[in-house]
Amino acid sequence: MAHEIKVPSAGESVTEADITTWFKQSGDYVEVDEELVELETDKASLPLTAEIAGILTISVSEGTVKVGQVIGTIAASSAKPAVKEASSITIEKPKASSDTTYAKGHPSPAAAKTLSENKVDPTTVSGTGRDGRITKEDAQNAIKSAPAVETQHLASLSLQSKRNKRHEKMSRMRRTIANRLVQAQHTAALLTTFNEIDMTEVMEIRKKYKDKFKEKYNVGLGFMSFFTKATSIALEAFPIINARVDGEDIIYHDYADIGVAVSTPKGLVVPVVRDAEQLSFSQIESTILAYALKGRSGQITPQDMEGGTFTITNGGVFGSMLSTPIVNQPQSAILGMHNIVDRPMAVNGEVKIRPIMYVALTYDHRIIDGSQAVSFLVKIKELIEDPTRLLIGI
Fold first, then answer.
1. Which of 33, 99, 254, 369 is catalytic?
2. Domain count, the chain
3. pTM (two decimals)
4. Which long-range contacts (CB under 8 A, 24 or more apart) does 22-25 make?
5. Is 365 labeled as catalytic in the residue annotation?
6. Choice among 3, 106, 253, 365 that is catalytic
7. Is residue 83, in this structure, part of any structural domain at all?
8. Domain region containing 33
9. In the structure, what pLDDT confidence band is assigned to residue 83 with cuts at 50, 70 and 90?
10. CA gap 270, 242 in Å, rounded
11. I need a labelling partner for 379 at 20 to 30 A (CA). Which of 74, 174, 282, 370 fits?
12. Among 23-27, 42-46, 57-61, 244-248, whose mean pLDDT is lowest?
């Protein structure tokens, strides 16, 4: 009996997904745990792997599918089908190679798009990706190394096509992000307050202990652990910042599940550092690093992003000086970090150059008063400028 490949459940609010890529074709033999297809839900990419070995039959090749829907089957088989010889003529068989796979010479979606736009034949490109797959970098290198005549021809085409337009369908994740941002603007009374933080003390601590910290915990000592810890203490002091609106009620949380915005190739996602108030610096850094690595490889799951009572976003990694972040509903507030710039400051009556970060707190004015929001931000400023407070929780 054939094994059915069904669209799995990916959270209570997820009912459907889009098929983005089948990595195999109908009739292909697949091994156990071999990646078959990538689905995209409202929240994350979801790769499906083969649960048994056998012959694959694809019943739904593209489009939107429902949770629980069968999109293919695998006919169980413990051995690959034998290859039939074309004639009785003896042909020397090539040596078996682990490089001979379906992926060899096959471009990834991004690479295929790059090659197509630049009129480059994929068969002329060598793949350096997994199992010989052609990566986007391979495609870009092939374009750079094209013959001079071909390059001149491409340049001519580029000049002719500068006013061309192209349409590209939004991914399901991008559509969801867009809808939620608009919904946040329409349903909440959003207001932003700002402050500046002198990062001198934190930077001195990092400089002094980063090597020993890395040696002991095998993870870097970053700014996010300081801000996550400071935020958890500030949320305890101002619980309304950690609350949310539910109809005519306010729901408070006695824990700090802090979402950390992570940039991925498909958009911004917010995995959650759970019970941040109970975690050490090394545990916070390890959790954030794991999410960052999963985000880059498209492996963040809907479960990683469920819940969350507050969010921190760091536009500073992209060079942002100042911004007004949008609340990640149903939460009521979000903290925006920015880049650190040396600025002249008045210190004890003298002008000194200090590393300064501007921070922003966007909050839902329906339940959070301005005085509470400002006091919350001042609390974080005090904790970061005097990091010893983080150790004793004051």
1. 369
2. 2
3. 0.64
4. 22/58, 22/61, 23/102, 23/103, 24/56, 24/58, 24/102, 25/56, 25/58, 25/102
5. yes
6. 365
7. no
8. 3-78+100-146
9. low
10. 16
11. 282
12. 42-46
